[in-house]
Structure formats: C-alpha cells, structure tokens
Amino acid sequence: MKLRLLLLLPFLIHSTMSQQCVNQLQWTTAGGNILVNGQPLVLKGINYFGFETETYTPHGIWSYDLNVYLDFIKNNNFNAIRVPFSLEMVKNNPSNLNINCATNPGLCGKSALQLLDVFIDRAAERGFLIMLDNHRITPGGGISELWLVTIAVQQRVSGISGDFTLADANYEIQWNVFAIDLKNEPHDSASWGNSNAATDWNKAAERIINSLSSFLGLFFVEGIEWGNRLENVAQFPINTGNPSLNNRVVYSPHCYGPSVYDRPEFNTPDFPNNLDGMYMVKYGFIVNQTEGNENIISGQPVVVGEWGGRAEVGSKDMTWNQWYIEWLRSKCITNNVSSFLHLPFLSLSDPPAPSQFYWCLNPNSADTGGLLEDDWLTPIPRKINLTNRAQPNPTKFQAQNGQICITAGAFPEAHCQVGVKVTDGPGTTTTTVNAGPTTITTSAPIAPSTAVAQAPSTTTVPSSGGGGVTLSTVVVNQWQASGVTILGLRAVKQYTLRISNGSPSTVCSVHIKLNASIKDKWNLDEVSSDLYRTPSWMTIAPDAVADQAGYIAYGESVPTVSSVHNC
C-alpha cells in the first residue's frame, strides 16, 4: 500500500497570527526554512530508537508503559521524534514482540507495523511530528555503507535499481508524519557527485525521492562520511527534475563530539573554536546557496538529524556539546531568510531557530547514552539543559475539533530576526522589515572550497600595551549578483577576519567597524550600528592570530579597527 499523508490545499496566512488551525498540513521549503502552511517551522526533535533493532519495538517498553516515554518527551518541550526502522521490519512485519503486557496491555499481540501505527497515533495526540528514518537494512546489524540492498533483500523489498523505496509500507500515515530520512549515514565508499552511479549518494537520493513522489512531506538527505559531509552540495545540489519535490528537500548532517569518535580536530590547542570553519565548509554554507531559478540568496534548510554525546561534567565532550549549541544558535540554522523572499502571499515575522534532533532518549546508546539514566526512568538534568538551550521555543501542534492548530515557534537570538519581501499579486508588492540586510539577487555561488583571490585589507592601530593590532580580511566565498540590484551592489562575499596581536600584552577585545551592509556574522557581538566587538572568550595572546570571526557582506567590505582593549 502506498504511503498516504493528509495534506491541505494551499492555505493563505498572515504572519501576525500566533496560532492558526487548518484541516491538513502542507509542507514546503523556502529561503533556508521549512514552512508548514506558510509558517516557518521551529524543530526541537529527539531520536527514540528500537524499531530498527531485533526487538522491533521502541526500547524500554519491555519494562514500562510507552506513554511514560511519550509524556516525558512532551513534558520536556520536544515537538518531533525521529523514529529509526529497518527495511526487514517494514517488509516482514514480525509479531511476538518484546513488550511488557502488564504495563502495555493495549500493545500486546500487535505486529511491528501495527505497533508503529499506535506509536504514530499516540505521538499525534501529544502534538509530535514524526520523521521515519531508514536506519538499517537488517535489524540490529551495522549501518550499510550504501543504500543498495543485497539480492536476497531486494527480492523482498521494493526498489528502483536497487535503491530503497517505502512505497510498499503496509500502513497508513497520520497527519503528523512529516518527513522521511532516506538513508542513515552513508559512509566509506559512498560519494557525492556525478561520476559513479553505483556510489553517488546524491543521485540515488534523487531517484528515491522520485519513487516516493506520492508522499507530500519532506525528504531528509544526509551527507556522506557518516552523514556529516555535504560540501559537494555547492556543486551538486539535489535535483529531482521536479520543482515540487526539490522544494521539499532538507539537508540533514549528523555531528558528534569526542565521546563518539575522538577526531584530530578535538585535540588541538584552539579546540573548540577551530570547528567553526570546518562545519561551515561541510554544511553550514548550504543555507546561503542560490535556490534554483529564484536567484535569491537562500538555499535549502539544514536540520541536524543527530547530535549529542555523553557530555560528562568537565569533559571535552561537554565542551563540544556546549560549543556546538552556541554555534547552531549563532548560525540561525535553519533560519537564513536574511535575503528577502519572493514568495506569493507569504510574510515571515517569526523565523525558525536552529532545528535539530538530539540523539537520543534511550540510555542504551553505547557511545552517547541518552536523556535517561540506565534505569530507563531517571532524567539526566545536564543533558536536558543542553537540549533546552539549543531550542527553547519550538513550534507547537495540537489536534483539536478535527483540525490541527499550529502555534508559531521563535528563535532565541535577536540577530536572527529578518526582513521578508511579500509579493501580494501581479504587479503589486509590499515589504515588511523586522531586521536584516538589504535586498539583493544572486546567481549560483562559487563552491566554498574555492577561495576568491582578494588582497587583504589591513588596518593597524596601537594598543595600550604598545605595538599594534593588525586586522585583515580574506574572502572565502563569493556570490556574483544578477538581475535587479540595490544600491549598485552586485556581489555578496563571505569574509574571514584575521586579527594579529603584535603587542606585548594579551588583547581581550577588539572593536571593529565592518563598513558594509552585513547579511550574517559569527563570533562578533554587535555594539551599535556597524560597530562590532570580538567576544570575551576570544583573547589574543602576544604574537598570536585569531581567525574565528567572520561575516557575510553585500558588496565590498574594508573593516577598520575602532579600539583595542587589553586584558
């Protein structure tokens, strides 16, 4: 039976409404945002695994009531659950599941897919969105490098040229199933490009999405190298050949700290600040990509599908978790509507926040643990605090009186409030400006891996301890503008600031004028109009260089140092 999702005919909204009630949900993306019935979606998601394992059930219900865990998720302000499953479970639909019948009397005797139906229904009662995650081929086994299934499994699981498709799933989808994660963590031989049909994951994802065209929700596409590498999206974005399908693609990296894999970058003197440039190159840049033929600086949404870790107090992993949350917040992922959107009947006044799915609820995740202690009942406050910091104000959903009511979420960082251009109809436009930069249109950007040569602009001012601080800029990415321009600006550039301390004293803060119209910034605090300062943690020792700060500007930027403050 083909997947079915109840969806609404196009619904016109006004952004001034804090809540709207609709008959069905409609999903699309625009300007780096996920939109539900025209409103930006703010996700605070949690992974709850088990269907992909040998139990074919969400874990923990071998002892306790499923409602205990769903209520825990609700009470901690999550609005979405990513549900891993295996292809074997979907095809074979096993019964005789590991369920405590005393605590779950309504679940005993059900098959795996019937249990999944119940899970989805109970999630809907609590207002949770559900993303189905194609996690594994076989239950409890390892994660396959590629999406290609073996011949034996191919005979049982429907596919297109060996690619996975959910078209045979024998259950009906509730209103709250909003997304499918096409393949968990492609790795090793998986590639991204246009050279090898057997290993190019992006091309397989395009085929899979086309095979699932009857599903009207979102398609989450992870990167290669265990999900976290998406840099080749700059040259090879997902293109199904169908604009409606393309507009429902969400890029979904996975990102972990030292408790999962102690990578070299976690063991450098400048950890964790060295990670900003790496993560921007891997996937942070995507929201600035040109969107097809729209020629606006706004790409597909980026939603982190897995992040987390042990986060023990005082550990390097806790340092990573805390830094990563602040990085997500500062980047406004998936909130990058800083360019004005040219969308009919749309006004966005409350943009979304960093959207992500924490891994995980379960305590039995070997390398990360979960939000619960090993007794499956006791919450871990430090981890719950991390998730609350990452997203305090998600979008709310409630099914009532035959409708679904949507209450807008909000982004916690003021600098992520943006301006949006509203097209009212042929020949007429109105513009609402909340904050953010001037309108500009662009063509496709240069890939982040290719820096644009530009002579650094340099300003030197004496510091109070003698010597001087030297400021220079390096252009690391550039979008050439086309079409209508504002104020004669015809380029958008991403700059890295290099601050060199030539004085004998440690510098605690540098105040900088960027002398440009700013689209986005990172590791810079706004003092006043066009005046910024380096954050308090960015101290610069004598003869050291700091390059963690950067920004995106319209046109040329020749920043100058306004003042230097020693420690």
Characterise this structure.
With 567 residues, the chain is of the alpha/beta class. The protein has helices at 66-75, 87-92, 112-125, 151-154, 201-211, 243-246, 275-282, 316-331, 381-390, and strands at residues 19-22, 27-30, 33-36, 39-40, 44-47, 80-86, 129-136, 159-160, 163-164, 177-181, 218-221, 249-251, 304-307, 343-344, 356-358, 396-400, 403-407, 420-425, 428-432, 459-462, 468-480, 491-501, 507-513, 517-522, 525-528, 531-533, 545-546, 550-554, 560-566. Strands 12-11-10-7-6-5-15-13 form an 8-stranded parallel β-sheet. Strands 20, 21, 22, 24, 27 and 28 form a 6-stranded antiparallel β-sheet that branches. Helix 8 runs parallel beside helix 9. The protein is globular and about 75 Å long. Residues 1-17, 149-172, 290-298, 334-353, 417-466 and 480-490 have low confidence and may be disordered.
Question: Which terms summarize this structure?
Answer:
single chain, 567 residues, alpha/beta, eight-stranded parallel beta sheet, six-stranded antiparallel beta sheet, 9 helices, 25% strand, disordered N terminus
